Amino acid sequence: MKMSQAIDRWVVGIVVGTGLLVFGLFFAAAPAMKQVNSAKVFGDDLVEKVCVTWDPKPLEAVASPEFVAHTGTGGIPAMVAAMGRELGPIKHIESTIEGMEGGVAQGGSDPESHTAHYYGEGDFENGPGRIDMTIVKTKGKWTVTRFSGRKL
Q: Contact at 8 Å (CB) between 141 and 107?
């Protein structure tokens, strides 16, 4: 076998191996990206429902029992009203998922259990502000374990 043929086989092997690796990584990441997208859609929808008129009902409907227990005097309605007074109605927000944890790959026992850290910065009637929330998906349903808003 000539030296050029051996080199050609090595090059083909490296190209095919790299292609298979990229293909495998893409399909391994696809389920995680689906969860990130699901979390972002849930968060964006909730922020719109709550922050346009500062209505606490949408947040109360998806709040975890632990979150409700830690909201203090007046509960979620008082917390949302205070944020609304500080920020005013939302005009525009750019949001992202900062981190995603959970599932079997992260050491959990439930492949459908995920925790996402959502944040969005945007324009409110009273100036720029930020919304932060932690959301948890268990048994196919997202719940909120933390929600806060503040001026920047």
A: no
